[in-house]
Predict the structure.
Amino acid sequence: MVIGITGSFGTGKTFVASIFRSLGAKVLDADKIAHEVIRKGTPEYRRIVKLFGKEILTGKAEIDRKKLGKVVFSNAGLLRKLSAIVHPQVIKKIKRSVENARKDEVVVIDAPLLIEANLNRLVDKLVVVKCSKRRQIKRCQEKSRMQKKEISRVIKSQMPLKRKTAMADIVIDNSRTKAHTRKQVRKVWGEKLWK
């Protein structure tokens, strides 16, 4: 069983994935895999630095994801170029992990761009995590200390949440308490996954 978890920036995908992990699933975190892909010394790192210049680097010559984010989320063309560098490697690593999973394992792919990267073709069930826009922005501000304008740019760069929920097999509403979200995920784990 392969479950894809997606949503929009700040809806709580990773929290929902962590609940699945606590229930026994193996979680593949696309963001963490992307960090590995762009780490210093990889071919993707070199291509990104060549494209964006050394201004996006930290003092230790590592890619500063916040600086890079500011550049790409205000320029759709550059975002596409960055995606063309990073996504193929992330997809390859996820596919390899899914293929290597044990037959009896439940594998969760936690990916903000799961649908956009066509990874939904790999999953048996698509879970979309949603929450109110107000809650989404508040979470992003608390977590990343980004300005509201920057957060809105990131959200607009992704597929609209309404379109994602329309494609979902299961929708988790993460607008209320963590306990409420846990209850929904446990119900999904116990009943809905196997239908």
Q: What stands out?
A: Residues 27 and 52 are 31 Å apart (CA to CA). The first strand starts at residue 2 and ends at 7.
